[in-house]
């Protein structure tokens, strides 16, 4: 029987809405978002503490590392300061991601091969204290092999390009995802995937061989608005006599 794919819910954009008002509002509450996600079936919570702190804040990491009832996956850039935070707050997983200040979202995978020397001691340090490590990479054999050599536990395959492509190019990118997943599994790496997954593409990603985990954020928060706006307007209408 095929195993069940673990669902990691990325709550960054709940924090984005909070930070739009500079964090001055008591809503939306991240801990409530975690509770709702877990009630809905989330088996992991994912947060990305970005250098520019545009959504998740250090305080969120501090709180969630204490109260999150399911494994916490911290996405972070490979910097000495972030490693320090990970060592202090001990998430269950660290997912290394590339980070550029001006980007709208994570644009492309890590170059593990190029950053090998810098990242290897970080992977080793965090692994030694029991944190599992995944590398967010393009679906390329070269990057899968570098992730294996660096000692990661998993690769998270970047699905963002595949989601946006159409026709023959989409087919080609899917094949790259399949080849990378098969090779990662052969090397003993866990296969994770994420970025840009909506209902439609999540149905398709079910077919990716050896897939163990997906991390989904933006679409879920958008669907929550679509599904929930009617109810919140109804509540407000009732309050206004
Ligand atoms: N996985 C990684 C490594 C990411 O950087 C992101 C975006 O923060 C996601 C998954 C989730 O992507 P999305 O918000 O498009 O679902």
Question: What is the topology?
Answer:
Blueprint: E1 6-10, H1 12-19, H2 30-40, E2 44-48, H3 58-67, E3 72-76, H4 80-89, E4 93-96, H5 116-128, E5 132-137, H6 141-150, E6 154-158, H7 160-164, H8 167-186, E7 190-194, H9 199-205, E8 211-216, H10 218-239
Parallel strand pairs: 1-2, 1-8, 2-3, 3-4, 4-5, 5-6, 6-7, 7-8
The structure holds pyridoxine-5'-phosphate.
Pyridoxine-5'-phosphate (PXP) binds near residues 95, 97 and 196.
The CATH topology corresponds to: TIM Barrel
Number of DSSP-assigned strands: 8
Q: Mean pLDDT, rounded to whole units?
A: 96
Bound molecule types: pyridoxine-5'-phosphate
Order of helices and strands: EHHEHEHEHEHEHHEHEH
Low-confidence stretches: none
Oligomer: single chain
The N- and C-terminal alpha carbons lie at a distance of: 56 Å
Helical content stands at: 40-55%
Overall geometric form: globular
Strand content: 15-25%
Structural class, from secondary structure content?
alpha/beta
Count of separate structural domains: 1
CATH level-four homologous superfamily name: Aldolase class I
What is the helix tally? 10
CATH architecture: Alpha-Beta Barrel
CATH class, please?
Alpha Beta
Spatial extent as radius of gyration: 18 Å
Q: What's the story with the biggest beta sheet?
A: 8 strands, parallel, barrel
Q: Main sheet: which strands, in order across?
A: 1-2-3-4-5-6-7-8
Task: Describe the model.
The protein has 241 residues and is α/β, with parallel strands linked by helices. The protein has one domain: Aldolase class I (TIM Barrel, Alpha-Beta Barrel), CATH 3.20.20.70. An eight-stranded parallel β-barrel has the order 1-2-3-4-5-6-7-8, surrounded by six helices. Strand 3, helix 4 and strand 4 form a beta-alpha-beta unit. The longest helix has 22 residues. The model has no long low-confidence stretch (mean pLDDT 96). Bound molecules: pyridoxine-5'-phosphate (PXP). Pyridoxine-5'-phosphate (PXP) binds next to strand 8 and helix 10.
């Amino acid at each position: 029987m095929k195993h069940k794919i673990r669902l990691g819910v990325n709550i960054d954009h709940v924090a984005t809405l909070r930070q739009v008002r500079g964090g001055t509002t008591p809503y939306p509450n991240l801990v409530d978002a975690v509770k709702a996600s877990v009630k809905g079936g989330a088996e992991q919570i994912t947060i990305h503490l970005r250098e520019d702190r545009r959504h998740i804040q250090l305080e969120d990491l501090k709180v969630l590392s204490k109260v999150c009832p399911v494994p916490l996956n911290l996405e972070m850039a490979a910097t000495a300061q972030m490693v320090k935070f990970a060592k202090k707050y001990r998430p269950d997983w660290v997912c290394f991601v590339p980070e550029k200040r001006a980007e709208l979202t994570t644009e492309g995978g890590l170059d593990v091969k190029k950053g090998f020397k810098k990242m290897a001691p970080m992977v080793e340090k965090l692994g030694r204290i029991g944190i599992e490590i995944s590398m967010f990479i393009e679906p390329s054999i070269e990057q899968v092999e570098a992730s294996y050599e660096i000692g990661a536990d998993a690769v998270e395959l970047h699905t963002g390009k595949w989601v946006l492509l159409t026709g023959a190019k989409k087919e080609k990118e899917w094949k790259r995802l399949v080849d990378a997943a098969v090779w990662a599994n052969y090397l003993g790496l866990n296969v994770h995937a994420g970025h840009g997954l909506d209902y439609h593409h999540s149905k398709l990603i079910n077919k990716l061989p050896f897939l163990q985990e997906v991390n989904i954020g933006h679409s879920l928060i958008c669907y929550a608005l679509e599904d929930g706006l009617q109810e919140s307007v109804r509540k407000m209408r009732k309050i206004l006599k």
